Amino acid sequence: MILKGKVALVTGAAQGIGKSIALKLATNGADLVISDVNLDKAQETAKEVEKLGRKAIALKANVANLQETETMIDEAVAKLDAIHILVNNAGITKDALILRMKEEDWDAVIGVNLKGVFNCTKAAVKYMAKQRYGRIVNIASIVGEMGNAGQANYAASKAGVFGLTKTVAREFASRNVTCNAIAPGFIETAMTQALSEKVREELANQIPMGRLGTPDDVAEGVLFLVSEAANYITGQVININGGMYM
Questions:
Q1: Helices and strands per DSSP (H, E), number in the chain
Q2: In what order do the strands lie in the sheet with 237-240?
Q3: What is the rounded distance in angstroms from the CA atom of residue 120 to the CA atom of residue 68?
Q4: How far apart are CA 162 and CA 181, in angstroms?
Q5: Taking the mean position of all CA atoms in its chain, how far away is CA 133?
Q6: Which of 34, 107, 119, 128 sits in a 20 to 30 Å window from 62, CA-based?
Q7: Tens place of pLDDT for every residue, the chain, 246 residues?
Q8: For residue 104, how many other CB atoms are within 10 A of its CB?
Q9: Helix crossing, 103-110 with 152-172: angle to 10°?
Q10: What is the rounded distance in angstroms from the CA atom of residue 177 to the CA atom of residue 167?
Q11: How far apart are CA 106 and CA 103, in angstroms?
């Protein structure tokens, strides 16, 4: 129970990687705020957290909207008394080659994936700075480091997360608030499971470890960064990609 007494908020936590992160933190003692635009699924995840013996609340918020985000953070603190851990996991994709990419698709992806991290961090860090303790982990992507055809908006948003992470780390280090990013490679999610077997094999062949990652691989990285074992780590990007990008 290395996180006993801590309150964690995970965005995009209703399913996929975000859900795995939430359950991993709960298993290790944290109480959870499950944030997602899909409130019904968020409530299902919250019930799973409660079955682990932890407190959990589900809150709906569009992280691209600063007012909604601030309301969510304030409500979380009001109901669970504090916020110690923030995991910015919410993200979307709207893929197209750049010549075919619509302006609204660019804006939507930047709004959730980059502005959303700014909004949540801005709303939460004021509480963390005041209590002189906080752990922020931003879920970025290997695509932000190496690019990917058809994902100009997604790659730009995730590359932006790296710069934002390092800046927040510098601004709040003196307040004992750390901020790090995780850049997952190709992970087994509903999206990758929908690919054909041939495409999945081609992806695996690009990875030195010969397999796609699991949501739990990412969740373990988050657990490390928010634990006492990572007290002297801030402003870093941790790659969890099976060696695909080094």
A1: 10, 7
A2: 56-60, 31-36, 7-11, 85-88, 134-139, 177-184, 237-240
A3: 10
A4: 7
A5: 19
A6: 128
A7: 999 999 999 999 999 999 999 999 999 999 999 999 999 999 999 999 999 999 999 999 999 999 999 999 999 999 999 999 999 999 999 999 999 999 999 999 999 999 999 999 999 999 999 999 999 999 999 999 999 999 999 999 999 999 999 999 999 999 999 999 999 999 998 777 877 889 889 989 999 999 999 999 999 999 999 999 999 999 999 999 999 999
A8: 10
A9: 30
A10: 12
A11: 5
Q: At which residue do the structure tokens 């499950």 appear?
A: 34
Place of tokens 């990687």: 17
Catalytically active residues are: 154
Distance CA 194, CA 3 (A): 35
Contact 204, 196 (CB under 8 A): no
Q: Which two tokens stand for residue 133?
A: 């303790």
